[in-house]
Design a protein that fits this description.
CATH class: Mainly Alpha
Strand content: under 5%
Helix content: 55-70%
Radius of gyration: 15 Å
Pfam families: NusB
Largest sheet: none
CATH superfamily: NusB-like
GO molecular function, one term: RNA binding
Family: Belongs to the NusB family.
Distance between the termini: 39 Å
Number of helices: 8
Keywords: RNA-binding, Transcription, Transcription antitermination, Transcription regulation
Number of domains: 1
CATH topology: N-utilizing Substance Protein B Homolog, Chain A
Number of strands: 0
Order of helices and strands: HHHHHHHH
Shape: globular
Protein name: Transcription antitermination protein NusB
């Protein structure tokens, strides 16, 4: 760490905190109608009080790179919900969850789903955890087949 680098407060950032931060960045980008990777780059380049974890960066960049495929899967498996009708926080949680299910090889499928449900409990409505669990559960049940073709 050089003298110009801001000091890190606290210990290492947990994966849960990194996921939550990724959801917050994706949500903010959607509200601003901007690209989440650009928003992330602006955050990383600025002097922030809270550092952005490498895992947050990986999630935002991963979701950004695969957003079209992720959104197609969400639209197909959300049973009666269009993406436009979903609460924006739930959509951000689901995007991170689908990315982890299909492209984060070091995250077991049940962990990806449980973490997404937990973040939905923290950030969204009372009905959101059940909705997130249902959508990700349906995608998770065919994740091996999807990984083979994506």
């Amino acid at each position: 760490m050089s003298p110009a680098d801001p000091p890190r407060r606290g210990g290492p950032i947990s994966r849960r905190a990194a996921r939550r931060r990724a959801v917050e960045i994706l949500y903010e980008a959607a509200q601003r109608e901007s690209d989440p990777v650009t928003l992330l780059a602006d955050r990383v380049g600025s002097v922030e009080v809270d550092p952005i974890a490498d895992y947050t960066i990986a999630l935002v960049e991963g979701v950004g790179a695969r957003r079209e495929a992720i959104d197609e899967l969400l639209a197909e498996h959300s049973q009666g919900w269009t993406l436009d009708r979903m609460p924006p926080v739930d959509l951000a949680v689901l995007r991170v969850g689908v990315y982890e299910l299909l492209w984060a090889a070091d995250v077991p499928d049940p962990v990806a789903i449980d973490e997404a449900v937990g973040i939905a409990k923290e950030l969204s409505t009372d009905d959101s955890p059940r909705f997130v669990n249902g959508v990700l559960g349906r995608i998770g049940s065919i994740a091996d087949r999807l990984r083979a073709v994506l």
